[in-house]
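input
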Amino acid sequence: MKKFLYFSAPWCGPCKQLGPVMDELNSEGYTVQKIDVDSNPEICQSFNIRNVPTVVLQVDNIEKGRKLGLNPKNTYIDLYNQV
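output
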């Protein structure tokens, strides 16, 4: 199963801009799991998250790619379709 892990923080400006894009992708059938970096430090450490926003693509719980920062919606769709 493919899914996006969306690492964000409520104080992060680019995260606030990316949030609606991730919600849109989720409503279009892409699975998006939002992870608040402040509330989930262990998960962030296990994925070596150093910047927010970060979007990790997992396939069967294995990381297959990631995008850092704010990117256009098509960037995430392309990442999803490459795997």
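quick obs: The first helix runs from residue 13 to 27.
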